[in-house]
Each structure stands twice: as C-alpha cells, then as structure tokens.
C-alpha cells in the first residue's frame, strides 16, 4: 500500500493548496473569516431539560463527588472481611436489608446485610458478595470463597472528584452531557443564546419545490439543503424567500437579513456572470468582502465578508458547491460565532478503493462512498464517478467527501486520503 501523506505539505494550508495562483487556500480563508467575527456573549440560564442541543456557556466543575456515596455494584450481601476467620466455608447471619434509596445502616459485628445494587454500603462493611456466589440457608448465608477487599463497592468520588472538570464551555449538550449534569444535580445550565442564521437563495430561475415550473425555471434545492443542515437547537433559522437576480431586491433582502441575523448565508450570484450581483450589493450596503476565489473544488466562488455586523457567507449557487462550502468552511465559522469549542467536520483517514485522477491547483472535495474496513481494519472509500457541482442526484448517493490534496495528479488504490463522513 502506498501511503500518501496529505496531512504533511510544505504549504501551511492542510489541504496543500498554493496561494501563489491567486486563490485563497481553504485554511487561510477560514482563518480570515474567523478574524472577522467575535463569539456571541449573551448567556441564558435554562432548565436542564430545555438546554438539549444548546451550547454550554462556561466550564462546569463537578458540584459534588460522583458517586455521591459508597454503594453496592451488585445485588448480594455486604460483609466485613475480618469476620471471615480461619478456613472457609463461612456462615454469617443476615441481619437486615438495604435497598437503593435507603439510608445508610451500620453492619453488626459477625453478620452480613442483604444489599441491593445502588444501596449505600453499610458502615463497617468492606466488601459486597454477589448473591450468585453465596448459598442462602434461611436467615444465614454460606460463603465458600473469600471476597476481595472493596469488591463490588463503587467508591464515593471514583468517577468524579468534587470540583473536577465536568464539562467544558462550548460543548453542545447531548445525551451524555445531560446525564453528567443531571447526575451531578445541576438543574439549570448556562447556555449561549441561539445563533441567528438567515438563508437567502438568489436566482431568477428559482421556484419553491411543490409549485409548477415555467420553461427554464428550476426548483430551489439550496434553501431546503441549508435549512436541513441548520436544523440544530443552537441555531435559529431566518428563512427568506428566494430572491431574483435583481440588485434592488437583493439589496433590500440583505439589508433586512443583516438587521436580524448573526450570519447570513446566501447562495448564487457570486461568480463572474452579468447577473452575479451579490458582491456589489454587499459593498453597496457598506459591507466588506474579505475572501473571494478559494483554492477548492467545487466552491471556488465562495465569498466571506461582513455586512452591518453580520458575517456574510456567499455560497456558490451550484448545489453541490453550496453543500461542500457549508460543510468545509461555513459551519466552522458559524460554529465559532455560536461559541462551539469544536467546529467543522470530523475528518478520518481512509484508503482509496480505486485510483483517481485530479487536476492540480485546487484541493477537491469529491463525493464518495465508504465501503467499510479491509482485512487490516483500514477504512475503504471510493469516489463516485464523474463528479459535478450541479449533481444533487449523485450527492444523495454519497456518504462521505474525499479530500483530494491540491497538488495530486493521480492517486492509486490504497493511497490514504482524508475523508469527511456525511
Ligand atoms: N465564466 C465563469 N463562469 C463560472 C465560473 C467561473 O469561474 N467563470 N465559476 C463557475 C462555478 S465554479 C460556480 S460554482 C458557479 C457559481 O455561480 P454563482 O454562485 O454565481 O451561482 P449562479 O450562477 O447563480 O448559479 C450557478 C448554478 O447553480 C444553479 N442554482 C443556483 N441556485 C440554486 C438553487 N437555490 N437551487 C438549485 N440550483 C441552483 C443555477 O441555476 C446555476 O445552474 O458559476 C460557474 N460559472
Ligand atoms: O467550483 Mo463550482 O463551485 O461549483 O464548480
């Protein structure tokens, strides 16, 4: 197997793109976009149940030790090892019973206590023996093997010490975070206010899906795609109707969007055609454009700027290009503004299942399918044939994007590539 090392390029950009060609490498575009924005500062205190999917506003330290007290890990009997003198088997009277939720008891000398999982270990007990490992004879138990000290006892603080880091700021609150907070008794959580994201698709040809088309018109695929991508609890979407390629109408819509949103996603109108008005309109509104022309394919016309304090991401109109630029660049910037600690797609390494050719100069995100693991456990991925930035049908067949480094001309089966699972 040939091991290409796409992660180690002389160029600082991880994708290997060369800025000399006048195109901005993806990493630089992200860095320049990040420099334009600041993170949201407004914090809301929410009941834990209402905080699901929101972004934690500050580090949370454990307000208690977990477990809260020594408790039984098994249904069985609590005993004192020093009561098992001489050679076994040993017989002990069962002096009582402790359930989960019961107050801690004391273990009488020379006796065992019936104990159930989660119940507080009685004072004086130093082991719990599982009921499968004793013989119960009326009010007595017989034990043939000496338990280990501390056996089946979950110690106070062994999971988390009092004051230990529980969750970091910037974490999206999912199921495991909810369990940790609830288990530590946290009833209200500080979260960052929702990020307001406006979606504004442009194109005189666009018609809402479900309505009839005139000749030459097409259904708007980008709005639904972005709405689905933004369907997250930390985001409030602000939907604008598709706007014709008309500078006045675009100016009006963008002005309204910038008054309401932290981030404005537009699609279309960022290339060089006569009806590509987006950049001019942003400037007319007093906005600033920081990045145009990225060294990526698809997505070269992606534009990043600012208008009236809102971050503007001008995604290309071609739907696959809009999808790829949102996933590779847009969500990193939006996530940063929203306060997320970890932003951007999770990348994995995979081996190509078939060779491919690539035109050097721009890194390429190519729709692909993950084939599973080979005999050595290496993930296998295969690029879909004939990628094109208009091919929404093909995109729906993909479950990953393969990141082909800028300078590669030909890659062969077995070469390692970075993969963005979708
Ligand atoms: N002379 C050049 N022409 C083009 C270049 C170039 O460098 N020189 N770049 C091409 C690339 S790459 C892309 S990507 C597109 C981007 O153009 P725009 O962002 O201005 O997008 P439009 O021209 O408005 O639309 C492009 C294409 O996508 C279709 N589209 C647009 N919006 C939607 C939507 N919401 N749902 C479905 N399809 C949509 C639109 O009908 C066009 O077919 O420019 C190339 N041209
Ligand atoms: O690069 Mo364009 O963004 O779709 O082909």
TrEMBL record:
Q: Does the keyword Metal-binding apply?
A: yes
The record's keywords, sorted A to Z, are: Magnesium, Metal-binding, Molybdenum, Molybdenum cofactor biosynthesis, Transferase
Q: Under which name does UniProt file this protein?
A: Molybdopterin molybdenumtransferase
Hey, what's the signal peptide range on this chain?
none
Q: Which GO terms describe its molecular function?
A: metal ion binding; molybdopterin molybdotransferase activity
From which residue to which does any coiled coil extend? Answer: none
Which InterPro entries does the record cross-reference, listed alphabetically? MoaB/Mog-like_dom_sf, MoaB/Mog_dom, MoCF_biosynth_CS, MoeA-like, MoeA_C_domain_IV, MoeA_C_domain_IV_sf, MoeA_linker/N, MoeA_linker/N_sf
Q: What cofactor does this protein call for?
A: Mg(2+)
Its Enzyme Commission number(s) read 2.10.1.1
Q: Which organism's genome codes for this protein?
A: Roseinatronobacter thiooxidans
């Amino acid at each position: 197997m040939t091991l290409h090392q796409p992660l180690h390029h002389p160029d600082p950009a991880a994708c290997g793109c060369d800025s000399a060609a006048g195109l901005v490498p993806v990493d630089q575009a992200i860095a320049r976009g990040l420099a334009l924005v600041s993170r949201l500062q407004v914090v809301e205190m929410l009941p834990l149940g209402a905080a699901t999917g929101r972004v934690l506003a500050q580090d949370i330290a454990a307000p208690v030790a977990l477990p809260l007290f020594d408790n039984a890990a098994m249904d069985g009997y609590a005993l004192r090892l020093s009561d098992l003198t001489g050679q076994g088997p040993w017989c002990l009277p069962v002096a009582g019973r402790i359930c989960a939720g019961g107050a801690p008891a004391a273990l009488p000398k020379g006796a065992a206590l019936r104990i159930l999982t989660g119940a507080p270990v009685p004072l004086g007990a130093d082991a719990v023996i599982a009921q499968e490992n004793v013989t119960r004879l009326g009010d007595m138990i017989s034990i043939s093997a000496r338990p280990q000290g501390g056996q089946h006892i979950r110690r106070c603080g062994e999971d988390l010490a009092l004051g230990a880091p529980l969750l970091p700021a910037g974490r999206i609150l999912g199921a495991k975070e909810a369990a940790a907070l609830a288990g530590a008794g946290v009833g209200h959580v500080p979260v960052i206010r929702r990020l307001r994201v406006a979606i504004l698709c442009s194109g005189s040809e666009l018609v809402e899906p479900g309505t009839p088309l005139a000749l030459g018109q097409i259904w708007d695929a980008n709005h639904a795609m972005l709405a689905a991508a933004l369907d997250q609890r930390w985001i409030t979407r602000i939907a604008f109707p598709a706007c014709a390629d008309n500078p006045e109408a675009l100016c009006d819509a963008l002005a309204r969007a910038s008054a309401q949103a932290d981030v404005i996603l537009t699609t279309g109108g960022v290339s060089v055609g006569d009806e590509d008005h987006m950049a001019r309109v942003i400037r007319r509104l007093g906005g600033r454009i920081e990045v145009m022309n990225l060294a990526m394919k698809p997505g070269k016309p992606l534009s990043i700027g600012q208008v009236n304090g809102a971050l503007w991401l001008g995604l290309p109109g071609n739907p696959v290009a809009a999808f790829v630029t949102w996933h590779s660049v847009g969500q990193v910037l939006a996530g940063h503004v929203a306060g997320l600690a970890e932003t951007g797609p999770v990348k994995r390494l995979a081996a190509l299942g078939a060779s491919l050719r690539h035109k050097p100069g721009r890194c390429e995100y190519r729709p692909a399918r993950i084939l599973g693991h080979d005999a050595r456990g290496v993930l296998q991925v295969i690029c879909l044939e004939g990628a094109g930035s208009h091919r929404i049908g093909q995109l729906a067949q993909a479950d990953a994007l393969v990141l082909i480094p800028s300078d590669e001309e030909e890659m062969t089966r077995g070469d390692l590539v970075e993969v963005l699972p979708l």
